[in-house]
């Protein structure tokens, strides 16, 4: 940690607690020297105990924005470990760098190939507004914010994990592999823990696979990822969640105050008779926080309405429909560390239509789409026939859905 050292001869210099000095030496300096915060210039004291690593603390309750967040022992250890790791790679590294023009302080600053990164290790809850403020502050000064979540904040089960809205702020996107992942750091094992192949089941529940790498085996800012693979087992579980969604929506919905149920009612359509191709897993589907069954239902209603008029719809009509639903709060976007995520809606719809084309649900001409007439998987005439229709659909569709998910790329979506 860096603070101004005020010596007896009024000479100022910066002090770095980098673990090189013994606790005895630090205690000796603490008695004979005064220390001041470089941000607010308030007096601070050096705390050198037997449990936590040595650190500084403001003497009086401070309103210093850059130093206002209390730090746990895990936070202090993480900064020290990250600093030592990056310094060992012969990069320009600074621990607790203060950006006075931003009134912000990065846990660790590092320069790599002429790009400066501000590493922010986060363990405590942080409001989205504060996260956005700090992120945008760095970006406006050409500094790359690198948010890193503490591994002990999450509790994954075998292959599913629940991530709060706060946790989801840390989700990243790999342009190379077209997949979403969550990067965390574990202080106890000195390891990066990566939750890969994130596939949303609900607003907060995800499928995932986990990879662990010792910090000494990696070089910043490269983190190894593997290509996403949708398995038959994962698809089956995903389908089960979607199947329960319809019944739960009717059972626990808001009735006449439920916008989706009202839209189905206006179209004289029962939500319990939606076709089996509403609620398909998509690689780009992460951008929409609402259940895939829900947002794909709005696309289904749009296609069905067009079929009644014997017309096709343009890709942008579907994009506009989802955008309107977002503006009307019928649907939600997932907030992530991805640039211009709202612009990704077109990619989501493109991928969905591409898959529906492979399943022969829609016919495509240029950028226009139309439901295939007399499609047995689109019109279910009675609830008694639903199970049979769904069973037959997935018997034929499962291999296609799995192949599509595992091979789809952002480039193919753009060209569709």
Automatic annotation (TrEMBL):
InterPro entries: CoiA-like_N, CoiA_C, CoiA_nuc, Competence-induced_CoiA. Residues 71-223 form the Competence protein CoiA nuclease-like domain. Pfam families: CoiA_C, CoiA_N, CoiA_nuc. Residues 258-378 form the Competence protein CoiA C-terminal domain. It comes from the Bacteria. Residues 21-66 form the Competence protein CoiA-like N-terminal domain. This is Competence protein CoiA family protein.
